[in-house]
Every structure is written in C-alpha cells, then in structure tokens.
Amino acid sequence: MDTAAEADTAALTEEQREIRRTLRELLDRRPRTTPTAPEGYDPDLWARMSGDLGLAGLALPEEYGGTGRGTHELALACEETGRALAPSPLLATSVLAAPLVAALGTPAQRAELLPRIADGGLTCALAAPGGSLAHALGLTGDNTTGAWSGDGRAGGVQARPAPGGDGWLLYGEAERVLDGHSAGLLLVAAHTGGFARSRTLLYLVRADDAGPGLVRTRETGLDPTRAQATVQLRDVPAALLGEDPADPAAVLTVLAAVGRTAAVLLAAEATGAARGALERTLGHAARRAPGATGTPAARHRLADVHVQVETARALTYCAAREPGPGPESGPLALAQALEALRAAAGEAVPPQEADRYGRRAAADELLFGPAGRLRARAAQRTGLPGEAAA
C-alpha cells in the first residue's frame, strides 16, 4: 500500500472502511464484461448492492428506510463503482432522482416512493430535455436561462392539465436519459404555464401506467456501462412532483443544488475510474517485467497522472464535507476528476483496458462537462475569475 492509500484509510471511520471494503470485494468478484441484461446492468448485483449493502438508501433519511448517512459515504460507494466501471442504477436513482423526490415531493409522495427507492425495488431516471443534463443541473450554465425544457415554444417537453383536471399530460422528447429505458419511475422536467406563467416543473411518470404514449429507446452510446435512452412522450399521464411553487424558479434552484452535490459524487466515480486505470496499468507492467514500470519517460507520466488523481480525490472529499445545500466546489472537483480520468485512460494498458476507461472518460465529458465549462460556470457562480476558479 502506498503512502497516499495509507493516509486515505487512516482518515476513514471504521464504518466507512467497512462500506468500501465490502463493496470492493463484491465488485471484484463480478465478471468484467459488458452487461447483456435488458436493464443495462446486472439486476442480481444491484439487489446485493441495494439490499445487502444498503447503497440505494445510503443518503436517505432513516424514516424512509434509508441509513441516514451523508455525501461522504455515498462518495465512497461511487468511487468503488467507478473503480470497477460497474454498471448500476446508483447514479440515476440515488444520486439524481432520490434527492429530488426528497426535496420536492409531497409528504405522501415521499412516504410512497422513498422506501421503495431505498430498498432497491424502484429505479428512477431524470429526463431533462434538450440533450444536456449538465445544463439542466446548472453545472455548465444557468438553468434558469435558455430553452432547454421547451420555454413555451416547440421542442422540449410540454405539460398541460389532463381533461377534467385529474393530473397532467406530457408531450415531447428527452435524449441521453441515464437508465431511461429501464427505470420504473421517470422524473421529467417539463415546461408549463405558457407565456403568462412560464415555468419548468418536475413530473412523475410511472412506466407501468404510462400507456402506449411512452416510447423508450436505448441509445448506442460511447460507454456500454453507462446506459442511456431517448424518451418520447405523447400525451403521457403524469403527476406533479410536489406542489406548484409560487416562485417560478424554485424547482430550478433545487435542480441546481442537487446538481452540485451530484458533481461531488460524479467526481468520486471518475476518480475511482482513474485509480482503477492506474492500478491495472501498473499491474500489467509488473506482470510483464516484475519491478519495472516501463521507460523513465513512462514512469514520469504515470507519476504525473498519480498526482492528478490524488489531487482530484482530495478536492472531491473536501467538497463532500462542505455544509449547506449543494457544495459550491463540487463542479470544480468534477472538472479535476474528469481531466484525471482522461489522463489515466490515455496511459492505460493493455489496449482493452485503455478502450474501456477511454470510453468512460469520453462519455462523462459529453454528459457532464467539459471541464472548461464546469470551471467557467463555477467562476460565474462564485464571482471569481476563471483562473482563480481553476
């Protein structure tokens, strides 16, 4: 164990070490193959992760069946799933959807949905139209501007009251929806109110009750371990998540706060993937020539990548400890982690490992970055010049 790893382990509580150890053992036993199940992940593995280890409800309150842990513990779990490039609903369900239900849902919605999420029985997906999840979450731009949800014009997803005033009907399309083809519950960002009371709200679409108007098509993405889909809605019945707020920007503010916390957890996942790439590269070199790690130039490059990865990890866990809704340094940690993953993937060997980690790096940049835009948005939010934010 190197010095950084020793310091890392010493800084964790016994419970945190146990979470990491147990999850790592579970993931290291799984075959490192592309999932062939229709869900895009191994349902049995997810049942173990959510049921036996409690990962699905790790950060949910105990009153809803969760374990009441914080962002730090969930970041540890995300780091391990990233290290193994393990496909699972953890990101779409526990990182993106569950906090939105907890923050915006009515008491009845929380009581019904959160326990089912916590025990792993209900998977979720956040469908944000416009093809830019990062923009919808406020990571790369102000989500109160632009027409990403439709903005009263053609495109996006539009919501209108159902005939008789019983619920809502959604019409439109969202692309690049994480786990959108298999999730049991969709949280759809849709525009409503027309010009007079224009606003973006979140709606609940239950896949089993949606009828023929819901068409979900799995996309062929860069990273086969990161399942995405195009979701088409043609007058699909839906329920409003929570109450219609008096402030038109209220839901967008919550989306941005969840986005900043999600950035921390995405950074943990990317850092774990970068660490995994480095471990496999060094292991491959040692098997070919015990005690050797290539030419002096290669050793220097790997040392530089190691520094990048550990810097990203330090920033990630500093952000995870930030108090308040949505840590402001989350997007900066994510920017550093994405760059570290790209660098580690570029040095990865053998070729099949370089391809696996390279695909994850490229897909994450497209979904949640790029790093330069994350830093620019962070600088805009904090009022710091771009160089200072970087």
Automatic annotation (TrEMBL):
Keyword Acetylation: no
Top-level taxon: Bacteria
Cofactor(s) this protein requires: FAD
Family matches, as Gene3D superfamilies: Acyl-CoA dehydrogenase/oxidase, N-terminal domain, Butyryl-CoA Dehydrogenase, subunit A, domain 2, Butyryl-CoA Dehydrogenase, subunit A, domain 3
Domain Acyl-CoA dehydrogenase/oxidase N-terminal: 13-120
Pfam families noted in UniProt: Acyl-CoA_dh_1, Acyl-CoA_dh_N
Record bears the keyword Flavoprotein: yes
Alphabetical list of InterPro entries matching this protein: Acyl-CoA_Oxase/DH_mid-dom_sf, AcylCo_DH-like_C, AcylCo_DH/oxidase_C, AcylCoA_DH/ox_N, AcylCoA_DH/ox_N_sf, AcylCoA_DH/oxidase_NM_dom_sf
GO molecular function: acyl-CoA dehydrogenase activity; flavin adenine dinucleotide binding
SUPFAM superfamilies (UniProt xref): Acyl-CoA dehydrogenase C-terminal domain-like, Acyl-CoA dehydrogenase NM domain-like
Domain Acyl-CoA dehydrogenase/oxidase C-terminal: 264-327
Keywords for the protein's UniProt record, in alphabetical order: FAD, Flavoprotein, Oxidoreductase
Family: Belongs to the acyl-CoA dehydrogenase family.
The name this protein goes by in its record: Acyl-CoA dehydrogenase
